[in-house]
């Protein structure tokens, strides 16, 4: 008798759950039925924006649906990350995030309004970018040694432009200051254009900018590159040595860019998005344009992306502790 009662209760529970399960199943089969919003935490024309628009356009073609790029610049990508973390997990909110808002922000900010480990699910890493130490074109410094020798032991803070507190470029400046024995005064710019203008005009001593952004500026003569954080010289600027070649170690900053959805997004939808995003970034024309823009194209599986995010969280927690930086 008890067995019959137990089976009846289980059947009732299953039937009561069906209304909640059916919409998700139907959504997975018909997805996407409307436009997908792709949020990026940096302004139009920036490196992340270039990635978002190139991959987003190809994704739209793959899915036969509109992909709208939403630039929510500010706070080193944190505004965009928070917006998507708090969005409905229905597959229509997509985030292109980078190392700053996902791996650096949690140990650096005690009052972060979102928890990337709990509220966001990574789908794939699509590109990576190394950084360049750049100075104004009119700067007297032509090598890293020149720069360090000029500021070594200085009591005055050396101004560095950054694209937000707690971003890789900010930490590059702090690590260089530690290596050179001088204090750093980070000047955080919300706009890429404002930061580039400050460097070009000599309003700051230098900056760490992504290769994707810096290569064009260096070639255009608005700034000079002294060294690259890459393991080998970058093809876009073969004349620029690496920090290792310049005998300066510990400046290990680079940026990865990955796509995320809100945690709880239906598994079938997340899997479809992951497959189509990898296909988009690996498309010949997209891959060529991203490479020309200074990015290293990856396109990893969800499992590989999850492993990368976990490893980066640990690595950057160590760097944050080493510099003693606290964003709040």
From TrEMBL:
Annotated Gene3D superfamilies: Bordetella uptake gene, domain 1 (3.40.190.150), Periplasmic binding protein-like II (3.40.190.10)
Key word Repeat present: no
N-terminal signal peptide: 1-28
Keywords per UniProt: Signal
Top-rank taxon, per record: Bacteria
InterPro entries documented for this protein: BUG (IPR005064), Bug_dom1 (IPR042100)
PANTHER family (alphabetical): BLR1237 PROTEIN, TRICARBOXYLATE-BINDING PROTEIN
Assigned protein family: Belongs to the UPF0065 (bug) family.
Protein name: Tripartite tricarboxylate transporter substrate-binding protein
Organism encoding this protein: Caldimonas mangrovi
